[in-house]
Specification:
Elements (H helix, E strand, L loop, with lengths): L5 E8 L6 H9 L17 E7 L2 E7 L10 H15 L3 E7 L5 H8 L7 E6 L10 H9 L6 E4 L8 H11 L17 H16 L9 E10 L2 E10 L2 H8 L4 H18 L3 E9 L7 H6 L3
Parallel strand pairs: 1-3, 1-4, 4-5, 5-6, 8-9
Antiparallel strand pairs: 2-3, 7-8
Helix pairs in contact: 6-8
This protein binds guanosine-5'-diphosphate and magnesium ion.
Length: 294
């Protein structure tokens, strides 16, 4: 073993909802990527950085490969997954420890053979019978060569140190890419919009979250106080009414949950104002998608 510094990028890939973003947050040690029970919560590539001694991990979270909800937005999301795979040192392939499905294999088949792959079998906390992992381990080991296969729980923190060690072994020798202490490549404006979007995903029913996006209209900082003005865009007036809720109550709950998370992340007071606006057809409009950063 050499003692030189190691650093590299690790793309976190997998089908929707296996826990990629939860795992990114756990590996980074801070919540930076939004998560929810709904598939396709993540729409942007986001980098999470963790520096431990002479090793720097640059994790890249990706949207799950999209199959439902065909749209221009989803075509862009799939492109972003393919691009993320083109230029990384290690791939962290995440599957649900309960079962392997065709969509898992499809994602794995996108990984070029020369890139080392670490497999994480996530959500083992949810398995009633841990011995069910054994046939799954064998099934996975037969798919290709892996740098390691590690059962984990992103939510409970189980075996994350082991996972990190296996990833570290696969990283190239290189000086760090980011200053120590950096957590992400994204700015506070981006994180604020994402945290509002997370609450919309968590607090609304099945269809509406997919018809929404969030923009930041103004972001001001005075010392430790941040004043953030955000807009949630929906496709139709009827969706706006649902988002607002009776007397605006639902929107108030969304805004205050987002504010609490942002205060934790930024370490200061946040004043957050959220408006709901109708913008018909935003997810099919290339100009609008460009402006929103997709
Ligand atoms: N029981 C359990 N649930 C998890 C675990 N990791 C993630 N989840 C849940 O799985 C859902 C999807 O997680 P998310 O990180 O958004 O998945 P992604 O679409 O792959 O990014 C969320 O409801 C998470 O709370 C885990 O280790 N155990
Ligand atoms: Mg995600």
């Amino acid at each position: 073993m050499t003692a030189g510094p190691r650093c590299g990028t690790i793309a976190i890939v997998g089908r929707p909802n296996v826990g990629k973003s939860t795992l990114l947050n756990a590996l980074v040690g801070q919540k930076i990527s939004i998560t929810s029970r709904k598939a396709q919560t993540t729409r942007h590539r986001i980098t999470g950085v963790r520096t431990r001694g002479a090793t720097q991990f640059v994790f890249v979270d990706t949207p799950g490969f999209q199959t439902k909800h065909r749209s221009r937005l989803n075509a862009r999301l799939n492109k972003s997954v393919r691009e993320a795979l083109g230029d990384v040192d290690v791939v962290l392939w995440v599957v649900d420890g309960a079962r392997l499905v065709q969509a898992d294999r499809d994602v794995l088949s996108l990984v070029p053979p020369v890139i080392p792959v670490v497999a994480a079998l996530n959500k083992v906390d949810a398995l009633a019978d841990k011995s069910a992992l054994l046939p799954l381990l064998a099934e996975i080991a037969a798919l290709r060569e892996f740098a390691a296969i590690v059962p984990v729980s992103a939510e409970k923190g189980t075996q994350l140190a082991e996972l990190r060690d296996e990833i570290a072994k696969a990283l190239p020798e290189s000086p760090p890419l980011y200053p120590e202490g950096d957590l992400t490549d994204r700015d506070e404006r981006f994180l604020a919009a994402e945290f509002v979007r997370e609450k919309v995903f968590r607090q609304l029913g099945d269809e509406i979250p997919y018809a929404t996006t969030v923009g930041i209209d103004k972001f001001e900082q005075e010392g430790d106080l941040r004043r953030i003005f955000a807009s949630v865009y929906v496709e139709k007036a009827s969706q706006r009414a649902i988002l607002l809720g009776e007397g605006g109550g639902r929107m108030k709950a969304i805004a205050s949950a987002a504010r609490r998370d942002l205060e934790r992340l930024f370490g200061g007071t946040v004043y957050l104002e959220v408006w709901v606006r109708v913008k018909k057809g935003w997810s099919g409009d290339d100009g609008a998608l460009d402006r929103m950063g997709y």
